[in-house]
Amino acid sequence: MPYEREVRRILWLTLALNLLVCAIKAGVGLASGSLAIIADAMHSLTDSLNNVMGLLIMRWATPKPDHEHPYGHLKFEAIGALGIAAMLGIACFEVLQSAVGRLLDPSAAAVEITPLSLALLVLVLAINLFVAVYERRAAQRLKSNLLLADAQQTFGDIWVTLGVIAGAAGVWLTGAWWIDVALSVPVSLAVLWSGWTVVRSNVPWLVDETAIQPAEIEAIATSIPGVIDCHAIHSRGLVGRQVFVEMHLTVSTPDLDTAHRITEQIEQKLADRYGQVTATIHVEPARYAEHSIG
Question: Ranges for the Cation efflux protein transmembrane domain (predicted)?
Fold first, then answer.
């Protein structure tokens, strides 16, 4: 199955499950009068919006180049992942705001939790866990930052839901409303950390950080017979998805056909090790030999 179609299929599936989770949380929240569960339902709604955003991003994130985007559209996916990271940050502050609200108005914690409410929340937790693990495995297999970011958000939801379940159970067993507030801080920190992980993994791609170390490219190039030197090496992109490599290559061969075959061998070896690679190789004759990487 083509990459874009499979990512869209996964996003549609997670969208359906996130909407189901949101509906269950909203129903439990309204039935119990729990502001925390209602807020968690709204948080799940942002997950559904993130899925919709991911589907829209995939509409434009094809790696195939066009006249306006000669290097493809993969950075649209990174931008989408950062958008999801921003949603994680918003969710974090929502949790903290809810905690402050409960401190200022303890009556907001007066909820009527039943065993059925807890059972439905556990069901929601199981669905979230399935979605997170399924989406993360798919992201690792497809090397999709967008799916990985969405999976990170779902893992953040699991912490939020765990906090809500623990708080609801605590209120049900003891009547101590402050349990929810006490759990809000670690939950928010977990959500914030998930967002930071997404940012950390996508910013280097957007700012064209080196994708493959020059020494590794030089070792591959100089392993081909006829290559004297490889220098002025630059690379950017995402290993496994799309990497652009530029280099100057000094060869001992006097004819253009042989030099061309050498560059093709280098491109093939780079692709075998790093996945899809587009290489621009400037060939120089032996008299231009240099022994430093620029």
Answer: 11-206
